[in-house]
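Section: Multi-chain targets

For targets with more than one molecule, the full set of components is provided together so that the structure can be written out for the assembly as a whole rather than chain by chain. Components appear in the order listed by the source. The example entry contains two components.
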Amino acid sequence: MSANEEVRAIRRRSWRDIDLRAVAPFAALILLLIVGALVNPNFIGITNLANVATRSAFIAIIAVGATFVISSGDLDLSVGSMVAFVASLMILFMNSGVIADPALMLTAAMVLTVIIGAGCGLLNGLITTVGKIEPFIATLGTMGIYRGLTTWLSQGGAITLREPELQALYRPAYFGTVLGVPIPIAVILAVTIVAAFILYRTRYGRHVVAVGSNSDVARYSGIPVNRVRTIAFVIQGLCVAIAVLLYVPRLGSTSATTGILWELQAITAVVVGGTALKGGAGRVWGTICGAFILELVGNIMLLSNFISEYLIGAIQGAIIIIAMLVQRSLVRKS
Amino acid sequence: MNSQVGEGGISVLSAKRISKSFNGVQVLFSVDFELRAGEVHALMGENGAGKSTLVKILSGFEQPTSGEILLDGQPVKLPPNGAAEALGIVIIHQEFNLAEHLTVTESLFLGREVTRYGVLDRKYMRAETRRVLDMLGSHVDENAVISSLAIADKQMVEIAKAISRDARIIFMDEPTAVLSREETNYLFKQVRKLRDNGTSFVFVSHKLDEVMELTDRVTVLRDGQWIKTSQTAILDGESIAQLMVGRELSKLFPAKREPDVDEEVTLSVSALTTGYVQDASFEVRKGEILGFSGLIGSGRTELMESIAGLRGRTSGDVVIRGQQIPAHDPHAANRSGLAYMTKDRKSKGLLLNSRMTANLTLQSLDRHGKLGYLSPASEAAALEKARRRFDIRVRDGNVVAGRMSGGNQQKLLLAKVMETEPEIIIIDEPTRGIDVGTKQQIYHFISALARDGRSIIVVSSEMPEVIGLCTRVAVMREGRIVGMLEGDEINEQEIMRYAAGLKKKAAA
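Its structure, encoded as tokens over all components, is:
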């Protein structure tokens, strides 16, 4: 079948064949946009929406990594702590002054951050696969470890980037724009495009879905199951590192409370986006959509004045439950 | 009361002209069966003869499509889902229904705990458990946790459970499959004791010697039909084996073609030993179809999975075209051109929620792109080719594998394995659960693959299959290869003799 014929074959399928689970998060997003526009006319403005997207960057990028881990049938609870830990190490390194030239120092710090992020992910992966420990328990453990180390490094206080020259050099990484697009939004797009390519168009992505769908079938098909799972955790670590690269220039400071509950927001974004928590189906674009939905709900609450913004956590909690109920009813119908 | 008194005993449970169909496929054809008070009645037949279905119907787990069941001479409709226990009918499954972390006492009283003033009366339950165990002559500790018990003792707990629920009729499905000889003897002693007290047993087994030793009467089924019921004493193993088989082979199979004796040996296995398989050695030549027969649980799948690197091995060598294959490394085996097709297509073979393409290319993704990038066009072309080659018929090419028919799933699985272009193909149960038309097609595919010069191993519990396809047949029993049959020796009686342990070939 040539590519053209395939496209036609897809078009020929009636609308009933469209996977509702894939469409649902986007429908919800559009619904929210309409609700927001009704609540407050400023909401739909490009400035506000760009703002929302920018603020969703950390969770969105982390959630893209979580999409891989969850698709392969695992779970990573340590990502919030990992953000705090990796960001603290990055700032401490930049404060150490081992490299005099600011540009060189910044480059080295960024490279180091990526390596540490990947390393943290690798550790999670190895504990889960080689140690044969349930991912829930393994990452509950490393969650405590990364958080504890951060508290210890900061001695209970804050770790702040001291060098003003470095600060000035690094600030645009969060606050700047490329071709008029805020850098965080550009990074979300870039990360998502790469992740979607890996998940849908590469051998590795196919292996992830196969392992998450049925690890026995994967094993009998000669797929190195443990390696696939471990690499998913490393991808998660890399995504955390990328989020850190955006987080540090924003505040230039970390503390023991940095990134608290981000793991739950990331998992919520993944699940709201239509990825099955039991593994076997990854939806990268849905995940991004889920992260936007979470941020939009907060934004609408802020602009509306009907509901206290202190209820954001409760509303986000309700969203994940509603998302699961909707998903399940869609599955039953199909 | 119009309870029937037959020759030599009172009928407690009997089936009259029972027929059963599943989804339009008839598996039992007007079968009669009669169980008398205080007898051990063997139910025998090949795999697929309808034994399990009959047992399920007689214990209420399935309802017959037609025919009637008489309990104590009265027509009854047995309640479903184990509720027939209340009538004294208990089935002891091959896999025990015991919760591993409960104690023996807790297991015995599970679901009918005795309470005093709303608090569990543990003392009474323990004493009662002890009483039942003593009655059986079992030394199992009533406070032991189930997971700590030997398999024979677990079996004993199951029986104690049945007795404590006043079972009069106990079905045992292959109870000795997991027992050692001593454990079996012990079990038989208890069964005889209970039988002498009036309990009736239905003993489903493939093991002819045990049937001869334990049972009073035998009923033989073949292809869903009642063949014979007779006193065990007037039969011998040979005659039972003949009753179980003895069917004409139809034209299901393509003509056999024997490879030349000087054809290259592609796979050579020597002295392979795993946890269960002992000292297995054999060779396969280019273009040969080698069959592996034996009873369920004889170690065939374990041997094959070990050869394919999916399981480890404790000793022995696997050599493919002169090259040693390391243990427990499915990649190495795959790279050397060996592919294993699992018998468990639903849980180990196919991703039921994925489409045909994702399933087809899963094992051979390297062939569809460069540097890990997959080419959709190349995958689509592979699917198109596979659908033509293996005649996979689906209306919608985007259907997920779980929604395809068993036959199409099996063809897709075969196509998936063939995508790796293996030289040696191990096919475990090539036609499990598929219709006759598709079976025939698969036999022809297998035969064509051998004609192309590939070496094929067919593992099958369906005897006609190995007989119709293979030029040599290895028979396994209890983890060992006990016979290697060639030419005219390949017939059902001969295979059954080896498989049931009536005959053993001296080690080569």
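The two ends of chain A are 27 Å apart (CA to CA).
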